[in-house]
Amino acid sequence: MPCSRCGEETSGPDHQSLQDCFDFLRLSLTQLNVYVARAELEAEAARRRADALMALLQQIADVARPEVEPAALPALVRRIRKLALGQVSPPGEAERRVRR
Ligand SMILES: [Zn+2]
To answer: Which residues fall within 8 angstroms of residue 1, CB to CB, at 6 or more apart?
Structure first.
Protein backbone atom coordinates (compact mmCIF):
# COMPACT_ATOMS: atom_id res chain seq x y z
CA MET A 1 0.00 0.00 0.00
CA PRO A 2 1.42 3.43 -0.85
CA CYS A 3 2.07 5.86 1.97
CA SER A 4 -0.53 8.64 1.81
CA ARG A 5 2.13 11.29 2.48
CA CYS A 6 5.02 10.35 0.17
CA GLY A 7 3.45 7.78 -2.14
CA GLU A 8 6.17 5.16 -1.53
CA GLU A 9 5.04 1.56 -1.17
CA THR A 10 4.88 0.42 2.46
CA SER A 11 4.42 -3.05 3.89
CA GLY A 12 1.53 -1.81 6.03
CA PRO A 13 0.17 1.57 7.18
CA ASP A 14 1.66 4.98 6.34
CA HIS A 15 5.18 5.85 7.42
CA GLN A 16 5.20 6.95 11.04
CA SER A 17 6.96 10.27 10.56
CA LEU A 18 8.01 12.72 7.90
CA GLN A 19 11.58 11.59 8.64
CA ASP A 20 10.59 8.03 7.70
CA CYS A 21 9.13 9.33 4.44
CA PHE A 22 12.40 11.10 3.65
CA ASP A 23 14.40 7.99 4.46
CA PHE A 24 12.29 5.91 2.11
CA LEU A 25 12.44 8.53 -0.62
CA ARG A 26 16.21 8.65 -0.28
CA LEU A 27 16.35 4.88 -0.56
CA SER A 28 14.20 5.02 -3.68
CA LEU A 29 16.48 7.64 -5.15
CA THR A 30 19.51 5.46 -4.45
CA GLN A 31 17.84 2.49 -6.12
CA LEU A 32 16.92 4.68 -9.07
CA ASN A 33 20.54 5.82 -9.38
CA VAL A 34 21.69 2.20 -9.33
CA TYR A 35 19.15 1.38 -11.99
CA VAL A 36 20.29 4.29 -14.17
CA ALA A 37 23.95 3.33 -13.71
CA ARG A 38 23.19 -0.25 -14.74
CA ALA A 39 21.22 0.93 -17.77
CA GLU A 40 24.17 3.12 -18.77
CA LEU A 41 26.55 0.17 -18.46
CA GLU A 42 24.27 -1.95 -20.61
CA ALA A 43 24.00 0.81 -23.19
CA GLU A 44 27.80 1.09 -23.19
CA ALA A 45 28.15 -2.68 -23.67
CA ALA A 46 25.66 -2.57 -26.53
CA ARG A 47 27.59 0.30 -28.09
CA ARG A 48 30.82 -1.72 -27.85
CA ARG A 49 29.17 -4.70 -29.50
CA ALA A 50 27.88 -2.45 -32.25
CA ASP A 51 31.39 -1.03 -32.68
CA ALA A 52 32.82 -4.56 -32.90
CA LEU A 53 30.19 -5.46 -35.49
CA MET A 54 30.93 -2.35 -37.52
CA ALA A 55 34.65 -3.17 -37.41
CA LEU A 56 33.82 -6.68 -38.64
CA LEU A 57 31.67 -5.34 -41.43
CA GLN A 58 34.55 -3.09 -42.44
CA GLN A 59 36.90 -6.08 -42.44
CA ILE A 60 34.45 -8.08 -44.52
CA ALA A 61 34.26 -5.20 -46.96
CA ASP A 62 38.07 -5.10 -47.05
CA VAL A 63 38.34 -8.85 -47.63
CA ALA A 64 35.79 -8.64 -50.40
CA ARG A 65 38.25 -6.56 -52.44
CA PRO A 66 39.83 -8.69 -55.16
CA GLU A 67 43.44 -7.81 -54.30
CA VAL A 68 43.23 -9.16 -50.71
CA GLU A 69 45.03 -12.41 -49.98
CA PRO A 70 42.82 -15.35 -48.95
CA ALA A 71 44.92 -15.94 -45.80
CA ALA A 72 43.06 -13.06 -44.14
CA LEU A 73 39.86 -15.04 -44.17
CA PRO A 74 40.25 -17.68 -41.39
CA ALA A 75 41.00 -15.08 -38.70
CA LEU A 76 37.97 -13.10 -39.77
CA VAL A 77 35.75 -16.17 -39.68
CA ARG A 78 37.03 -16.98 -36.16
CA ARG A 79 36.09 -13.49 -34.98
CA ILE A 80 32.66 -13.69 -36.56
CA ARG A 81 32.10 -17.02 -34.83
CA LYS A 82 33.18 -15.57 -31.46
CA LEU A 83 30.86 -12.64 -31.95
CA ALA A 84 27.97 -14.92 -32.86
CA LEU A 85 28.61 -17.01 -29.74
CA GLY A 86 28.49 -13.87 -27.61
CA GLN A 87 32.12 -14.21 -26.53
CA VAL A 88 32.87 -10.64 -27.42
CA SER A 89 33.00 -7.37 -25.54
CA PRO A 90 32.36 -7.34 -21.89
CA PRO A 91 33.16 -3.66 -21.22
CA GLY A 92 36.85 -2.91 -21.70
CA GLU A 93 37.61 -6.05 -23.66
CA ALA A 94 36.14 -5.01 -26.97
CA GLU A 95 39.10 -2.97 -28.20
CA ARG A 96 41.66 -5.61 -27.29
CA ARG A 97 39.73 -8.29 -29.16
CA VAL A 98 39.11 -6.07 -32.16
CA ARG A 99 42.82 -5.54 -32.60
CA ARG A 100 43.61 -9.27 -32.41
ZN1 LIG B 1 5.78 8.05 3.50
So the answer is: 9, 10, 12, 13
Q: How much distance in Å is there from the Cα of 36 to the middle of ligand 1?
A: 23
Q: pTM of the prediction? A: 0.52
Whether pLDDT at 82 is above 90: no
What residues contact 19, with CB distance under 8 A and at least 6 apart?
none
Tell me the CA–centroid distance for residue 37 and ligand 1, in Å: 25
Residue 97 has pLDDT above 50, yes or no: no
The pLDDT value given to residue 74: 81
Three-class SS state of 9:
strand
Return the SS3 of 33. helix
Q: Are 90 and 46 within 8 A, CB to CB?
A: no
Separation of 27 CA from ligand 1 center, angstroms?
12
